[in-house]
Design brief:
Elements lengths: L2 H28 L9 H6 L1 E6 L3 E7 L13 H13 L17 E9 L8 E11 L3 E10 L5 E10 L5 H4 L4 H18 L1
Antiparallel strand pairs: 1-2, 2-4, 3-6, 4-5, 5-6
């Protein structure tokens, strides 16, 4: 693959992931102002650094005090929310109409192995990769490390079940929707020929 094609694919994958964040924020803005979604802190602070059309995504995340427990390290429950969102978004670049679209279904299991306490006040690297995907089930693996990847703090195996996009979510459009529809309508038309 040429460098130009590889970079175009990378940018497309990043746009697919960013679209989930854009739609999430638009939907969150429709909620009552005093309603704070459990995952909002994560969605507002994950910084996309890379993505691939193979179902991979990498983030940086600052471990703010809102993720801490009384021991001043990341709370295990915070890790679950962080991994839930960071692994689900790996499905965005491989989504198809009616298959793994916005929010990528629902969690069946989320198995986290905590290897080392994550100090509050540092920035971590989170990498997620889809390792298996079908019409109804998907499995994504992820890990949270130091930025130089020398320290592995925790790993995850996330199993998801595909579910239809809620109609009220589909009504909230983002720029990516036009590209997504154009790509898939074009492929469907070619398949009929």
């Amino acid at each position: 693959m040429s460098d130009t094609k590889a970079e175009a694919d990378r940018q497309k994958a990043i746009r697919a992931v960013e679209a989930m964040f854009e739609r999430y924020r638009k939907l969150a803005d429709l909620r009552p102002h005093d309603h704070i979604d459990f995952d909002r802190e994560v969605m507002n602070n994950l910084k996309i650094i890379d993505a691939g059309l193979d179902g991979s995504v990498s983030y940086e995340l600052f471990m703010s005090p809102s993720f801490s427990n009384l021991n001043d390290v990341m709370h295990g429950g915070a890790a679950a929310v962080i991994f839930d969102m960071a692994t689900t978004t790996a499905l965005c670049p491989i989504a198809r109409p009616a298959s793994w679209e916005f929010m990528g279904g629902v969690t069946r299991t989320l198995n986290i192995s905590y290897l080392k306490a994550v100090p509050i006040g540092i920035t971590v690297l989170i990498r997620s990769k889809v390792v298996g995907v079908g019409k109804q089930m998907a499995m994504i693996r992820g890990k949270m490390t130091s930025l130089n990847e020398k320290v592995v703090y925790c790993t995850v195996e996330h199993h998801k079940v595909n579910t239809p996009v809620l109609e009220k979510h589909r009504e909230v459009r983002v720029k990516w929707d036009d590209e997504f529809e154009r790509d898939w309508l074009g492929k469907e038309a070619k398949a009929k020929i």
